[in-house]
UniProtKB/TrEMBL annotation:
NCBIfam families: salvage_TenA. It comes from Kroppenstedtia pulmonis. Its EC number is 3.5.99.2. Belongs to the TenA family. This is Aminopyrimidine aminohydrolase. The gene is tenA. Pfam families: TENA_THI-4 (PF03070). Pathway: Cofactor biosynthesis; thiamine diphosphate biosynthesis. GO terms for biological process: thiamine biosynthetic process; thiamine diphosphate biosynthetic process.
Amino acid sequence: MTESRLSQQLREEADAFWEGSFRHPFIQEVAKGTLPLDTFAFYVTQDAYYLSVFAQVQALAGAKAGTFSETKRWAEHVQKTYEVEAELHERFFKRLNLKKEDVFRPAPTAFAYTRHLLTVGYTGGVIEIIAAMLPCYWLYSEIGKRLADSKPGVDVYQDWIKAYGLSEFEKLVQEQITALDSLAETSSRETIQRVRNHFLISSRYEYMFWEMAYRKETWPLPISTN
C-alpha cells in the first residue's frame, strides 16, 4: 500500500478544526440567509485586511521560489488575489455601506493570524509558506462546494458562496496542493514537521476567524489612532 500524500495527511489531521468551521453558526447562517448583515460587514472588513497581508506572503514565496517561472507564477497569484478579492469586496463594501478607511483595523484574531503568516513568510521556505496559506485556499473551496445548493435569499451571501465554488478557484487550490506534495518529496523530516505545524495552526485560525467575525471581536482596550 502506498503512503498517502502529505496534503491528504494534513487534511485528515486538521479535520476536527475544519468540521468546526463547516458547523460554525457564521457559515450556517450565511447559508440560511439569517446572519445579520452588520456581522457580515464586520467579517468583510477583517477579510479585506487579511487578504492584503495574504498577498504580501504570496510575494515572499515568489522571492524564495527556485526558478524564474515559479517566481512569475507567484506574482500572478498576487495579482489574482488583488483583482478577484478586491472586486468582490468592492461590491460588498457598496452593498453594506462600508467605508474604505474601515479596512485596516484588525481585530485581535485577524492580527494574530496575519502575524503567523508573515512569520512563516519571512522565516520559512516555499513549502512552509504554502502550508501556512493552504488552509485558507482549501477550506474556502470546500465551503463553496458544501454550500453550492444553498438559497440564502440574500444577494451578498449568494455571491460570496458562488465566488468560492467556481472552478477557477478550485484550480488555484489544486495548484497549491500539487506544489505542496511535490516539494514534500525532497524535504527533510524536520521541514515536514514544521509544515504540519503551520498547516494545523492556520486551520485553527480559520475556525477562530469565523468566531471573531460572529462575535465582532474587539480589543480589550482602545487602540490609539495616533
